[in-house]
Every structure is written in C-alpha cells, then in structure tokens.
Queue: 4 jobs
Job 1
Amino acid sequence: MDKDINKRFEEWKVVRATIVEFDHILSNIRSLDVTATTILLGAGFQYSNLIFLIVIVFNLAFLLLEIHYHKYLNTVAIYAQEIEDEIGLELTKRMSLSRNKYKEHKKSSIDYFKGYFIANVYYLIYLGFMFLGLYLFLGQISL
C-alpha cells in the first residue's frame, strides 16, 4: 500500500509541475500580448491605421491561445485533485476553492460580479484591446 501511495505521490509531483508549466505559458502569452499590442498601437499612430486591424487579429489569436492553454490547465488541475483525494492532500482543491469563491454568491450580487471580473480579467484585456483596435481603426478612417 505504501508503494502505491509513493507512486501516486510521484505522479502528483509531475502533475503539479505540469500545472506550473501551463501557468508559465499563460503568463508568457499575456506578457507578449501586452508588449506586442503596445508596440503595434504606437506603430499604428505613427505609420498606418491598417496596423490597428493587426491589433484586432493579434489579440484574437492570443485570446484563442489563452482559452486553449487554460483548458489544458483546468484538465490537469482536476487530475491533480483526483490524485490528492487518493493520497490525502488538498492543495489543488484549496487553491480552486479560493479562486472560485465568488461562485458562492448570488449571480445578481456585487460580490459575484467582482469575483467573476477578477477571476476572468485576462479575457477582458484581450477583448478591450480588440475593441480599442477597432475603435482606432474606424476613428482614423473617418478623419
């Protein structure tokens, strides 16, 4: 029995390392997006309003990457919880409870809205950059 627990514990360590790796990937995607968008917005003002269209496409691509890797991260986190249930750990469960605490509130409450906003702010950043690119592109056309 101890051998099985040790084997599952080693597997859990690999799963936790995978979670950390997906977190790094998501962090790199977000950093690259903000940096590239800032550069492209500057270039759009300097050179051509068509660059604002590139901002939209770029942020859509980064949003899709975010969703893609976030699905992997969630799948691995669920698997980590399953292993933790078997060996008596609760790290991933406690972290998930903390992140999803806003779901305990009524959907119409301000606490639910604040929690949802904080938990999903990265989606809003991508969408904000896309709307900004569209706004600037359309604004430059009419000038």
Job 2
Amino acid sequence: MAQLGALCISNLCATKPFFKELNLGNDDDFVIVDPKKIAGKFGAANFIHLINVPNFDDKDRFLKWAYTQLNR
C-alpha cells in the first residue's frame, strides 16, 4: 500500500504542476476536474486525462506520453 502512495505522489503530484506550466490561459483556466482529469488551454487540447501516466522520473516515457496528450 505504501508503494501505491509513493506512485501517486511521484506521478500525479508532479504531473499537475507540469501541465499547469503548459496552460496557455490564465490561472483561472487551469482546473483539476477530478483526480484523473485536468482542464485548461493546451492548444488543441482542452482536457488532459491522467490515465496511465508513466512515472514522472522516467523523463523519456513521460514526455512522449505528455506529447501524445497535447497533440491528440
């Protein structure tokens, strides 16, 4: 169970600030809809679904996943 908590911290807690920086709108446009969904202005994407987020520390996999989320 402790590993699950560590996984949530490393993935979700690091992922949300990452996408907040990528939000093209103002701070009011960035909303955490639920634990697995972020709304904001990300170019063509208005929502980022945080399902199957790779480990944030695995930069190559994480950036490939983020690129896919932003360009779908």
Job 3
Amino acid sequence: MTYEYVLTLADFKAAQRLFMRQTLWRRINGFLWIVILPIVGALSLGLLLYDVIFRHFKYPASIGGILAGLAWFGLYLAIMRPITIRRIFKQLSPGGGLEHSVSHELTENEFISRIPGRSEGRFLPAAFYGFAEDEQIAILLVSKKKFLFVPKRAMPEEAWAELRAWLDKNGKR
C-alpha cells in the first residue's frame, strides 16, 4: 500500500535527533559539537570582552588571539547549525520550501520512497543497515550515516507493524 504525507522541518529535526542518539559515539560527538564548543566560544568571548573592557588588554597577544579564535568558532557553530539544518531540508524539497510531499510503498521485496518531481528510491531488504524509532519519527538507515525518515503520523499502527515485521524477516531490525 502507498502512503502519502507531508514532511516538515520539525520532522527533519526529530530525525536528526534520533540519529544522533543511536550510538554512544554519536551522542558524545553531538554533545561536543552542539553543546560544549558553543559554550567554550561564549566563555572565550566573555573573557576577551572582560580583558578588553576592564583590564585594558593585559592578556598577552597570543592568549587574546586564541580567545578570539575560540569565540569566533564557538559562536559560528551555535549560529550556523540551525541555518544549515534549514538549508539542508530545503534542498530535499522540489520547490525549496519548508514542507514537501513524500510517499512510500512497501511491497513484498522492496521499499519504495518517492519525492514527487524530485526522486524515487527503491530499496531491497539488503540495502538497509538498520532501523530506529521513537514516538515521533522512524529512521531507516541505508548506511552508517544516511537514512530515510518517516514520521509516525504518516502510517497507521498496522502499517508500522507490517514494516517492522518486514525488517525483522530480513534481519535488519
């Protein structure tokens, strides 16, 4: 049976969060890049501003340069991450919008995913690397770093059970 639904930016963000939670290394890496480095950048900016405003450049030039570089890098990550996520999602859409129509179909021996006017992917069971789901979204991994995502609202529970059974039968869950 074919299911058609609309993907939103919130679905994409939920899929990214689920993907980041799959292994310990991804969690550590995500925590480092999303939390720690922006905090280090903000602290570096604070120290740099404190030195400039209250101490009148008492830090050596090398320390000031390191603090400026850390501040720039940390703040760049904090500002550019949401912009980059939005830009990547827009590239998925045929019109470049923040919502787009998608359909998928599960047959006896393949999973077919379509973005009308853009692409169609046919995946045999051997193509899947793994499967993960939470209460909002499910991801079908086609490699270690690539996945298809389907919101839970897109299909009734019976169809989800059928997909899980199809993946179990082929040893991919």
Job 4
Amino acid sequence: MSTSLAMLNIAHGKFQLSVENEILLVSLRGEVNEQCAAKYIDCFATQAEKLAHKPFGVIVDISGFRGATPAAYEICNRYNKTLLTMPSFAGKAVFCPPSMSALYHISVAQQPYVQQQVKRELQQQFHDIAGATQWLRQKIMARY
C-alpha cells in the first residue's frame, strides 16, 4: 500500500512524505527554516503515530537538501528524541549521494538525538536507495 501524503513548500525548504507499508518515505529539498521544519515534524509525527502499532522505519532522501537553520535543526532534534523512545521505531536510512556526505555529517553533528540514533545503530547513511531499503527492511524484520 502506497499513500502519497504531502508535498509542501513552506517559506524555505520543501518536503514530501509518503507511506509504503511499514516505511515512511521522506524527501527533503532546499534550505529548511524553522517554519518548514515545524510543519515537516507535524506531518511526520502524525504519520509515525499511525505506523507505531507495529515496527516501522524511515527512509530520508536528502539528495536535494541544502542545509537548515539552527532553529530548524533544534525542532527536528526534539522529535528525534521522541523517535528514540518509540518501541516500534526500527531505524532510519538516510540516502545521500557521496557529494552530500559532508552535509549529512554536519546535520548529524547539529542534532544530539540523531547522534544517539547513529550510536545505537538506528540510523545509517547510504549512497543508494536499494541499500537503504534493504538495511531498513532487515531492521524492521528484526523487531518482529
């Protein structure tokens, strides 16, 4: 089952959310500010709660992401803390091309709860969607 949920352009930055079975698919684009981050987290949290009755995971495509303001990172970091407390959260696979690796590491460094996800092997970076999907499906199956 695939459901397209949202493609929103909020002040600065764009995001798209969709759900395929037990995976929440996210695409981030542009430079994200506080307004965009707040709307993104609101939409994300709504969908995550719908999936929370069984193991679920997240694939985030940051191939078009160009960074975020400190306030935007703070909003996202707070929700990443919530993800860490959800027993059904199996993991997050982040897709970014090799040329985006530095931005991925900067984003992780700005968010202490994302750092905890990485440390707990709940988040991993991938250079291809197929690898990200395979890793995430394994993480989800391990929760059953």
